[in-house]
From TrEMBL:
Keywords: Membrane, Transmembrane, Transmembrane helix, Transport. GO terms for molecular function: neutral L-amino acid:sodium symporter activity. One of its GO terms (cellular component) is plasma membrane. It comes from the Bacteria. The chain crosses the membrane at residues 18-37, 43-69, 81-108, 128-157, 178-195, 215-236, 320-338, 350-374. InterPro entries: Na-dicarboxylate_symporter (IPR001991), Na:dicarbo_symporter_sf (IPR036458). It is a multi-pass membrane protein. This is Na+/H+-dicarboxylate symporter.
Amino acid sequence: MKSNTVEQSEKKKFRLGLVSKLLIGILLGILIGSFLPEGLIRVVITFSTLFSSFLKFVIPLMILAFVTMGIADLSQGAGKLLGITASISYASTLLSGSIAFFVAINLFPKFISADVINSIGDPEAGMLAPYFSVPIAPIMEVTAAVVLAFLLGLCISSMRGKEIGDTTYNFMNEFSKIINRVLNTAIIPLLPFYIMGTFANMTVSGQTFTILSVLWKVFLVVISLHLLYLLFLFVVSGTTCKKNVIQMLKNQVPGYLAAIGTQSSAASIPVNLTCAENNGVSKEIRNFVIPLCANIHMAGSMITITCCVTSVLLMSNMPINLGIIVPFIMTLGIAMVASPGAPGGSIMSALPFLPMVGIGSDSALASLLIALYITQDSFGTACNVSGDNAIAVIIDTIYNKYIKKSEPAKNAEAVK
């Protein structure tokens, strides 16, 4: 009996993570595109095309569910602190994306040369067509989903318990759980097969190895930017709040490692709360800021997406400048609010907005972005989570200096 139990526990322990499955999918896609006959390759491509249609149908529902609940739940905090924390988090997300773009636009052309661009040409030229496709029209446009999510979220947050009850809130809460179930049981598990089909088609067209020779360099730049941006955040936080920056960074190591292991900001919250406590953040502030920023502070994700988009546009010889990338970053900073804790949640939120920079949300380039993003998602999550603690120190200082001191005075005036 004991030996059977041990064998069962060992089987349970051995599970391939999403990144491993994705890398296997890429490898299998290359092998399929290189060695299998065209007829079998088109079978794989047909599945990939069907999945793409399903994904396009689900994305507006995902945005409606998660953004609505994200806004509705954020309003349950203290008014001033909520506004300050949300503003700093959004500013940090925009700043990280802007820095990533300036680094990428100046550095990437050094290894994405004209020769590379000419050898790639049109990444979708020469690709095989699926045997058939099933167009599934989304219930609503992505822009309409974003607008409706904001309307519902703001109205629920301001009217709940005053003019309306909990019915709408509970409905949207359960709806978000349904969409999260779809994401975790259908979308995420099938992503490796989707990527496999894309790489099989890219291999047939002769573009795979040329593109991969560029993307591994992009990967190194992205990880370096994550670490440098974290250093910047902690230096700003430590110097302005008069705390030891080196000690703050040491205290954050467990939270960083937990985020790499879980690939989830939400799952890292317990460890991150301990990191905040070690940094001297008061209990009421850390219990408010850390869970809040886990949903709204996406600096690491923004760095990754901006760098990946810039590299893809450069490889495709498509126009890219501040006028194109800034609106994309500003929109994405909002759309990623309360993106699901499942790996790849941020890139799923970004897919509908890729046409803003000229990339089709269901194109081969989009699936390439998904692949590159998820392979480093652990590091992006670690950057998000660690940056939350730098913000928590700033909010704690603001609270103790300006808000907490003013409360007794207001109470005294009220008594008079």
